[in-house]
Amino acid sequence: MRVRFQADADLDGRILRGLRRAAPEIDMRTAAEARLAGLDDSEVLWIAAGAQSSRVVLLREAIPIAVAIEELALIWSASNAEEWIDRLVWIPL
Q: Taking Cα atoms as reference points, which of 49, 57, 66, 67 lies closest to residue 90?
């Protein structure tokens, strides 16, 4: 199964747009689509922790947009969702 991404409300929209341009086939849901908009980060993490087989990828605050897009596209193209079960990672890796 392919990796599916869930963005929180703080994700820079340029990353989302760039990722969709670079690889439109990537499954990435916005915070608004998941009804996460307006929630605190701690609440979003709590929801992620309660999800069965949760996976969390965190982007470092100062990450260049191009690097974030490249790393997320790499995760999507070079791995399966099962490899990320119960993992928390920071990007850049």
A: 57
pTM of the shown model: 0.83
Distance CA 39, CA 60 (A): 19
Tell me the CB-side half-sphere exposure of residue 86, using CA atoms within 13 A.
2
pLDDT digit string (tens) for 10-51?
889 999 999 999 999 998 888 888 888 888 888 887 887 777
| Chain length of the chain | 93
Domain spans in the chain, listed from the N-terminal domain onward: 4-91
Q: Where are the beta strands (DSSP E) in the chain?
A: 4-6, 27-29, 55-59, 87-91
Q: What is the Cα 30 distance to its own chain's centre?
A: 9
For 46-71, b/e burial (b = at least 16 CB within 10 A) is eeeeeeeeebbbebeeebeeeebbbb
